[in-house]
Design a protein that fits this description.
This is Luciferase-like domain-containing protein. The chain contains 4 helices and 2 strands, in the order αβααβα. With about 90 residues, it is mostly helical. The chain has a two-stranded parallel ribbon with strand order 1-2. Helix 2 crosses helix 3. The radius of gyration is 14 Å and the shape is globular.
Length: about 90
């Protein structure tokens, strides 16, 4: 499994002529996105900065879900739930 950022995933899909099984893994709720944004920005981030980061994350999720690159989508708010869902994907393959 190779974790990728959105831009790297776009480049990989454009350059690699092999079948890539993509699994989009993210958080499921606005609260989870807000927590992720705060963690990404660090302490002292303003509400405006957090809101902008949440908007960016939502755009990434939208791309991930609608791009056709990812065959599976895992949206859960806890690491444990995400890991369990990814395990189910791996067993399916």
């Amino acid at each position: 499994m190779l974790p990728l950022q959105v831009e790297a995933a776009k480049e990989l899909v454009a350059k690699v002529p092999a079948r890539i099984v993509g699994v989009w893994v993210g958080v499921a709720s606005l609260e989870g996105l807000t927590d992720l944004a705060k963690k990404s920005l660090g302490e002292g981030a303003s509400d405006k900065e957090v809101g902008e980061e949440v908007s960016r994350l939502v755009e990434e999720i939208e791309w991930g879900v609608t791009s056709g690159v990812f065959e599976f989508t895992v949206l859960e708010d806890t690491d444990e739930a995400r890991v369990e869902d990814v395990k189910k994907v791996i067993k399916y393959l």
